[in-house]
Amino acid sequence: MSTTHPQSTTADRRKVVAATIIGTTIEWYDFFIYAFAANLVFAPLFFSPAGEGVAMILSLLTIGLSFLFRPLGAFLAGHYGDRLGRRPMLVLTLLLMGGATTLVGVLPTYASAGLFAPIALILLRILQGISAGGEWGGAVLMSVEHAPLGKRGQFGMSPQLGVPIGMIVASGILALMRVIAPGDAFLEWGWRVPFLLSVVLIGVGYIVRRTVEESPVFQEIREHRDQQSAPIKQLFARHGKLVVLAALLFAGNNALGYMTTGGFIQGLASRPTDEGGYGFDPVGVQLAILLSAVVWLLSTMLGGWLSDKIGRKKTYFIGWALLLAAAIPLFELVKLGVGGIAVGASFMAVGLGLTYGPQAAWYAEMFPARIRYSGVSISYAIGAIIGGAFAASIAQALLQAFGTTWAIVPYLVLMVVIAAVATALLKDRRDIPLDIDFEKSGQWESWHRDQAPHEAGRKS
């Protein structure tokens, strides 16, 4: 049985890989510069009347606030992505994210606009969350559903690369702006430049994504007129437990990842000591995080490739073991300075990549074709809330409550353990056929019920 559409040529696949990498890079660049700014400048600029400590927590909470609206983006994009197609949702979510990010760059501060400033910031952050909730599922399915059999991990890894690449770009630009606009200049105007640069990136991403062919699986669904009228209802009625386990699978990766992608370590390391930080050179801190993002990029590529060779589940377990080993000394290494940050964050990045590279392929293989967009998007969005939404805020609250970063470590360890349990309970369905005919034949349900070996997928 074919698992790719006859029109899914090598050229189509190359375009898809390029488009998903560029698109998700832009999405996550936008997301990361907000997280970094929330840790570095938003507290005094938008929440200063609340007092120093509370302002910092409020600023960090706006990072998590957007996660609460990711499910809305996932529901909307999932519903229309399963009915209208994957590609239209990709373009819309990209434009929404870029537009919201650009507007953050021109917002007035509390000093000049009063309450309007934090309210507008929060509203724009909500739009970012809606966009992020819908974007990932479409990018994943475009990659995995175009992939040849036996290489879904490698193709599905391409949108995952957008996260570390976006972090590399964001860290590099923030480091550059720290040099161009040091000290008060960064607080006054330097932080705005990375947000305004989204205008250029939107144009590039939009052009690239418009040239990509629709997913071959959705083409088959449309040709058979098999779109679900209520895909989300079907998803929870028949696959609710699977959604919960898939969400928990992502939560562990997200909680640890948001120590850097959420900007917590950068903020802690570079804030002055009289503001509760370590007072390290902010440029050096950003460059250390940039190095860890390069390691994350490489380990994500390794994770996708390895999952095609030894399976999704085995790759994840290796990653969880490495993350447990990295979480314990993480903050002790951060205290050592820029070099320690580079070592600690890079060590953690290896485990992050091995538990992120295979995610797209494993998620896509969990859900049948007609509700797949809804399934992967909603699972991802819920996992992001459980794991990453308030990871930075929780870490900051634990630090302030106990006065030591050791209080954060049990929280991170617990999240990894929960995700590892979910990994054990999920079935590895590497190479299961993804097409609509396989679903309609009734074999999808029996495959997921009967622990069939993945080699059957290669023969079908």
From TrEMBL:
<dbReference type="InterPro" id="IPR020846">
    <property type="entry name" value="MFS_dom"/>
</dbReference>
<keyword id="KW-1133">Transmembrane helix</keyword>
<feature type="transmembrane region" description="Helical">
    <location>
        <begin position="337"/>
        <end position="357"/>
    </location>
</feature>
<feature type="transmembrane region" description="Helical">
    <location>
        <begin position="285"/>
        <end position="306"/>
    </location>
</feature>
<keyword id="KW-0813">Transport</keyword>
<feature type="transmembrane region" description="Helical">
    <location>
        <begin position="161"/>
        <end position="183"/>
    </location>
</feature>
<feature type="domain" description="Major facilitator superfamily (MFS) profile">
    <location>
        <begin position="16"/>
        <end position="431"/>
    </location>
</feature>
<feature type="transmembrane region" description="Helical">
    <location>
        <begin position="242"/>
        <end position="265"/>
    </location>
</feature>
<protein>
    <submittedName>
        <fullName>MFS transporter</fullName>
    </submittedName>
</protein>
<dbReference type="Pfam" id="PF07690">
    <property type="entry name" value="MFS_1"/>
</dbReference>
<feature type="transmembrane region" description="Helical">
    <location>
        <begin position="116"/>
        <end position="141"/>
    </location>
</feature>
<dbReference type="InterPro" id="IPR011701">
    <property type="entry name" value="MFS"/>
</dbReference>
<keyword id="KW-0812">Transmembrane</keyword>
<feature type="transmembrane region" description="Helical">
    <location>
        <begin position="53"/>
        <end position="77"/>
    </location>
</feature>
<dbReference type="InterPro" id="IPR005828">
    <property type="entry name" value="MFS_sugar_transport-like"/>
</dbReference>
<feature type="transmembrane region" description="Helical">
    <location>
        <begin position="405"/>
        <end position="426"/>
    </location>
</feature>
<dbReference type="InterPro" id="IPR036259">
    <property type="entry name" value="MFS_trans_sf"/>
</dbReference>
<feature type="transmembrane region" description="Helical">
    <location>
        <begin position="189"/>
        <end position="208"/>
    </location>
</feature>
<keyword id="KW-1003">Cell membrane</keyword>
<feature type="transmembrane region" description="Helical">
    <location>
        <begin position="315"/>
        <end position="331"/>
    </location>
</feature>
<dbReference type="InterPro" id="IPR005829">
    <property type="entry name" value="Sugar_transporter_CS"/>
</dbReference>
<feature type="transmembrane region" description="Helical">
    <location>
        <begin position="378"/>
        <end position="399"/>
    </location>
</feature>
<feature type="transmembrane region" description="Helical">
    <location>
        <begin position="89"/>
        <end position="110"/>
    </location>
</feature>
<keyword id="KW-0472">Membrane</keyword>
<feature type="transmembrane region" description="Helical">
    <location>
        <begin position="28"/>
        <end position="47"/>
    </location>
</feature>
<dbReference type="Pfam" id="PF00083">
    <property type="entry name" value="Sugar_tr"/>
</dbReference>
